Amino acid sequence: MKKMDFDELEEKVYTEVSRCRGRMGLIIEAEDKRIEINSEGKFSSASLIKIPILIECFRQSEKGTIDLQQLIQIASVEKVGGAGVLQALSRDLALKVIDVMTLMIIVSDNLATNLLIDLIGMDQINQGIKELNLQHTELNRKMMDFTALKNGFDNYTTAFDMLTCLKEIDQNRVLSNESASKAKEMLENQQFNNKLSDQIDLNLCKVANKTGELLGMEHDCAIIQYEKKSVYAAVLIDQLRHSNDGRQTMSSIGQLISQYLMS
Question: What mean pLDDT is predicted for residues 30-38?
Answer without folding.
Answer: 95
